[in-house]
Amino acid sequence: LLHDDVIDLASTRRGKQAACVVWGKRSAVFCGDYVLAKSTYLLGTLGDVDVVFAISQVGLDHNEYNFFPGL
After folding, report:
1. 11 in Cβ contact with 3 (< 8 Å)
2. Residue 34: pLDDT band by 50, 70, 90 thresholds?
3. What's the distance, Cα to Cα, between the start and end of the chain in Å?
4. Which percentage of the chain shows pLDDT scores above 90?
5. Containing H/E element for 70?
6. Residues 6+ apart with CB under 8 A from 39
7. What SS3 state is found at 66?
8. pTM (2 decimals)?
Protein backbone atom coordinates (compact mmCIF):
# COMPACT_ATOMS: atom_id res chain seq x y z
CA LEU A 1 0.00 0.00 0.00
CA LEU A 2 2.95 2.31 0.53
CA HIS A 3 3.90 1.98 -3.14
CA ASP A 4 0.26 2.23 -4.27
CA ASP A 5 -0.24 5.58 -2.59
CA VAL A 6 2.81 6.98 -4.38
CA ILE A 7 1.72 5.59 -7.76
CA ASP A 8 -1.90 6.71 -7.30
CA LEU A 9 -0.88 10.12 -5.89
CA ALA A 10 -3.07 9.41 -2.87
CA SER A 11 -2.97 11.90 -0.04
CA THR A 12 -4.86 9.76 2.48
CA ARG A 13 -5.05 6.15 3.58
CA ARG A 14 -8.04 5.09 5.71
CA GLY A 15 -8.82 8.67 6.65
CA LYS A 16 -5.28 9.60 7.68
CA GLN A 17 -2.44 11.23 5.77
CA ALA A 18 -0.63 8.75 3.54
CA ALA A 19 2.99 7.94 4.39
CA CYS A 20 4.13 9.63 1.16
CA VAL A 21 2.55 12.88 2.36
CA VAL A 22 4.01 12.64 5.87
CA TRP A 23 7.53 11.45 5.01
CA GLY A 24 7.81 12.07 1.26
CA LYS A 25 7.59 9.78 -1.76
CA ARG A 26 11.19 8.57 -1.59
CA SER A 27 10.93 7.48 2.06
CA ALA A 28 7.53 5.85 1.46
CA VAL A 29 8.93 3.81 -1.44
CA PHE A 30 12.02 2.74 0.55
CA CYS A 31 9.79 1.77 3.46
CA GLY A 32 7.56 -0.24 1.12
CA ASP A 33 10.64 -1.96 -0.33
CA TYR A 34 11.83 -2.83 3.18
CA VAL A 35 8.46 -4.23 4.24
CA LEU A 36 8.31 -6.35 1.08
CA ALA A 37 11.88 -7.63 1.50
CA LYS A 38 11.44 -8.39 5.21
CA SER A 39 8.13 -10.17 4.72
CA THR A 40 9.56 -12.24 1.87
CA TYR A 41 12.54 -13.16 4.05
CA LEU A 42 10.25 -14.19 6.92
CA LEU A 43 8.14 -16.30 4.57
CA GLY A 44 11.31 -18.01 3.41
CA THR A 45 12.09 -19.03 6.99
CA LEU A 46 8.89 -21.11 7.02
CA GLY A 47 10.56 -23.60 4.71
CA ASP A 48 7.43 -23.94 2.56
CA VAL A 49 8.24 -23.20 -1.05
CA ASP A 50 4.55 -23.22 -1.99
CA VAL A 51 3.86 -20.29 0.37
CA VAL A 52 6.74 -18.26 -1.04
CA PHE A 53 5.60 -19.09 -4.58
CA ALA A 54 2.00 -18.04 -3.84
CA ILE A 55 3.01 -14.70 -2.34
CA SER A 56 5.44 -14.06 -5.20
CA GLN A 57 2.64 -14.72 -7.68
CA VAL A 58 0.43 -12.18 -5.91
CA GLY A 59 3.21 -9.60 -6.25
CA LEU A 60 3.66 -10.37 -9.93
CA ASP A 61 -0.07 -10.21 -10.61
CA HIS A 62 -0.34 -6.88 -8.83
CA ASN A 63 2.56 -5.35 -10.75
CA GLU A 64 1.40 -6.71 -14.08
CA TYR A 65 -2.05 -5.23 -13.42
CA ASN A 66 -0.51 -1.81 -12.69
CA PHE A 67 2.01 -1.78 -15.54
CA PHE A 68 0.10 -3.74 -18.17
CA PRO A 69 -3.62 -3.13 -17.62
CA GLY A 70 -5.82 -5.35 -19.73
CA LEU A 71 -3.35 -8.26 -19.89
Report:
1. no
2. very high
3. 22
4. 42
5. none
6. 55
7. helix
8. 0.70
